[in-house]
Automatic annotation (TrEMBL):
<feature type="transmembrane region" description="Helical">
    <location>
        <begin position="104"/>
        <end position="122"/>
    </location>
</feature>
<feature type="domain" description="GGDEF">
    <location>
        <begin position="256"/>
        <end position="389"/>
    </location>
</feature>
<dbReference type="InterPro" id="IPR043128">
    <property type="entry name" value="Rev_trsase/Diguanyl_cyclase"/>
</dbReference>
<dbReference type="InterPro" id="IPR050469">
    <property type="entry name" value="Diguanylate_Cyclase"/>
</dbReference>
<feature type="transmembrane region" description="Helical">
    <location>
        <begin position="72"/>
        <end position="92"/>
    </location>
</feature>
<feature type="transmembrane region" description="Helical">
    <location>
        <begin position="190"/>
        <end position="215"/>
    </location>
</feature>
<keyword id="KW-0812">Transmembrane</keyword>
<dbReference type="InterPro" id="IPR029787">
    <property type="entry name" value="Nucleotide_cyclase"/>
</dbReference>
<feature type="transmembrane region" description="Helical">
    <location>
        <begin position="35"/>
        <end position="52"/>
    </location>
</feature>
<dbReference type="InterPro" id="IPR000160">
    <property type="entry name" value="GGDEF_dom"/>
</dbReference>
<dbReference type="Pfam" id="PF00990">
    <property type="entry name" value="GGDEF"/>
</dbReference>
<keyword id="KW-1133">Transmembrane helix</keyword>
<protein>
    <recommendedName>
        <fullName>diguanylate cyclase</fullName>
        <ecNumber>2.7.7.65</ecNumber>
    </recommendedName>
</protein>
<feature type="transmembrane region" description="Helical">
    <location>
        <begin position="128"/>
        <end position="146"/>
    </location>
</feature>
<feature type="transmembrane region" description="Helical">
    <location>
        <begin position="151"/>
        <end position="170"/>
    </location>
</feature>
<keyword id="KW-0472">Membrane</keyword>
Length: 398
């Protein structure tokens, strides 16, 4: 478990803004912004259809595979849906933040999009590769982006419509895939196969890009949340939970020769009471920076709560731990922190050290370090004390 160097406040805020604020994470967009995304996708679908319609009409050799009157109708309907979907983008953009509009407009926007796709699915065949691919991809995207109530309110009628069309086609009450001429051998018809591929690829590509964006942003957010759950937000040091995890790992790995150093700022309450809590926070931040500067990369430093800090020194003897603690004590004492009136604020800390042994659990080691810290405070503060067995007896006698 590596030590986290102090993260400047601006950088931390930038990360939070980048991954957690509404403008960056698609999943956290307002519902109308998500509708704009869906409407833009719908416009792209109908532009694709219009391109196919025009291509067929400009190439007479393909007329034998389609019903031309349906193609002409398609141009009109695809153009109409394109205009409607495009126009719906304006109120979605204009009325963001309006609770009444945000409650009802998404049903209109997504509903129009679904209706247009259902009609196209019927024209090419409700169990065709295009219809099934679009159905699965859009459901998955919809469930990620929108509330389930909205998605299922559109999904259930659409499924009933497509299922009804499939049944009526099977019972010969409706033509199946009325856009195409199915008199020939459909699945050996190169034009039909290429048309299916043409319709599938844009939808599949867009959905895959959306999924990749959503999953990427989800991973980034989870990573940041995990990091934020491990560090203290004021000092950007490990918090108590992370320190306990670190100690558990050391204990599980039977790591020998590590030291725990507990330190507590002396008379910290006076700093808050006399100079203000903002100066108390500044003191904590400055002390955390000093501790980071005095330790090795392999060591761990954390804020254990309030004005108490903890150091985990790996591969360290008692003598070495005392040297590190003394170096930290002097550096803290030399801090230059001034009040709002320019008065120097005295800052000192007391230290308690405990060395690991094979038969000690992390909580027992913490208790020993805490006893040594107590002794440092009892002996006048601004001192470094190490836990040794006679210390316990002395404390019991006193």
């Amino acid at each position: 478990m590596k030590r986290i160097s102090p993260v400047p406040e601006k950088i931390l805020k930038h990360k939070i803004t980048k991954y957690l604020v509404e403008d960056e994470v698609v999943m956290n967009w307002s519902i109308l912004k998500k509708c704009i995304l869906m409407l833009a996708l719908g416009c792209g679908v109908h532009l694709t259809w219009l391109g196919w319609d025009i291509f067929v009409l400009l190439n007479p050799e393909y007329w034998q595979y389609v019903h031309l009157e349906r193609v002409y109708t398609q141009i009109t309907l695809n153009s109409s849906f394109l205009v409607i979907l495009f126009l719906l983008i304006f109120p979605c953009y204009k009325f963001q933040g309006n609770q009444l509009i945000e409650r009802y407009l998404p049903y209109m926007a997504v509903g129009t999009f679904v209706i247009s796709l259902c009609r196209d699915a019927y024209l090419v065949g409700v169990i065709s590769p295009v219809a099934t691919t679009s159905y699965v991809c859009l459901i998955m995207v919809g469930l990620v982006l929108f509330h389930r109530t909205l998605v299922y309110s559109m999904l259930i009628p659409a499924s009933i419509f497509l299922g009804g069309c499939a049944y009526l086609s099977f019972s010969h009450q409706l033509p199946y895939s009325p856009l195409f001429n199915l008199d020939g051998e459909l699945f050996y018809n190169g034009f039909w196969l290429l048309s299916m591929l043409y319709f599938i690829l844009p939808i599949l590509a867009v959905c895959m890009v959306l999924f990749e964006i959503l999953l990427s942003q989800w991973r980034h957010r989870e990573q940041l949340i995990k990091q934020l759950s491990q560090i203290d937000p004021l000092t950007n040091l490990f918090n108590r939970r992370s320190i306990n995890q670190c100690l558990d790992k050391l204990n599980a790995a039977a790591t020998p020769n590590y030291a725990l150093v507990l330190l507590d700022l002396d008379h910290f309450k006076k700093i808050n009471d006399h100079f203000g809590h903002h100066k108390g926070d500044e003191t904590l931040v400055e002390v955390s920076a000093v501790l980071n500067q005095q330790l090795r990369e392999s060591d761990v430093v954390g804020r254990f709560g309030g004005e108490e800090f903890i150091l985990v020194l790996k591969n360290t003897s008692l003598e070495k731990a005392e040297q590190v603690a003394e170096r930290c004590r002097i550096a803290i004492q030399q801090l230059q922190i001034f009040s709002d009136e320019g008065e120097l604020i005295p800052v000192t800390a007391s230290f308690g050290i405990a060395i690991s042994t094979a038969d000690l659990r992390p909580q027992q080691l913490l208790s020993q370090a805490d006893q040594a810290l107590y002794q440092a405070k009892a002996d006048g503060r601004n001192l470094v004390k190490a836990y040794v067995e006679p210390l316990t007896a002395q404390m019991q006698v006193s």
